[in-house]
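The following record pairs a protein chain with its ligand, S-adenosylmethionine.
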Amino acid sequence: MTEENEELNKKVTNWWNDNPFTYNPLEQKEIKPDAAFFREVDRKFIKWTPWGQRDSRPLSAVIDYESLVGQRVLDIAIGTGWSTEQFARVGADVSAIDITPKAVELAKTRFTIFGLPATDIRVADAQVLPWPDNTFDYVLAWGCLMHMPNTEQAISEIYRVLKPGGRMAGMMYNKHSLHWWWYIWLSKGILRGRLLRMTKQQLANRYTDGVYQGGNQLTKFYSSRQIRRMFGRFSQCRVSIHDTTTAIDHWPHHCLSLGRFLPAKIRQYLTTVVGQSLWIEAVK
Ligand SMILES: C[S@@+](CC[C@H](N)C(=O)[O-])C[C@H]1O[C@@H](n2cnc3c(N)ncnc32)[C@H](O)[C@@H]1O
């Protein structure tokens, strides 16, 4: 890693350690990690990803949990551990990492509170995974690869630790989304003139995760095409676009929510064209 990237990586780590991700943008820094807190995180996650739900488990429509029984699973950047909980509950042999001690502490607390099986949860950097080649059957990297200075290196590490035929899935932010082009670039950058004193990268950091805390240290947006290129070494890579209808409902502005007058089917369709989340599924 270059010196510049190392410096940025430290800033990213410190920021997430001080601002653990809870799916509640208004949350105070001082959180009380009890059962109600973790279930509220799960509830918010599910509300934010309706496209991912088949049953009450987060991402049950897109992760075949039953196929992971007894399989080696790596959960990358676990936040408060909602996904690690699901892998452990289904009986996968899961290892879980986050770059911040705070997230690891929170996920371990979750496991203690809900009496989940002893699990390997530890601090590690996805850009330098501490496992030998060909270790895992399945890797999840939800909402994290776009927050790392060296995203390509993290993808290459995922490829390395996957067994041949192993699968990975992840979520990254979609550049060609209403969120980026309309609400951030046009609305904040052009109409409010912020691009006169901020770079596009600073704008992305400021108006995505941590918006009520002054923005985070690094958020990158990618197009589906860029993602497919970055996952070029994998034998298969599928990218699909998803979102809630919130950004469409409130278009062009939350004070003038004209989008909600569009027929529900059209709003739903638009989430698959200009939604914020890219769901990536790849096979080694
Ligand atoms: C937006 S949060 C998502 C957390 C979790 N996946 C969730 O959905 O709750 C991003 C997470 O990535 C972690 N992270 C950032 N850079 C990382 C890295 N290089 N390696 C591992 N985790 C990292 C942060 O500490 C933070 O917990």
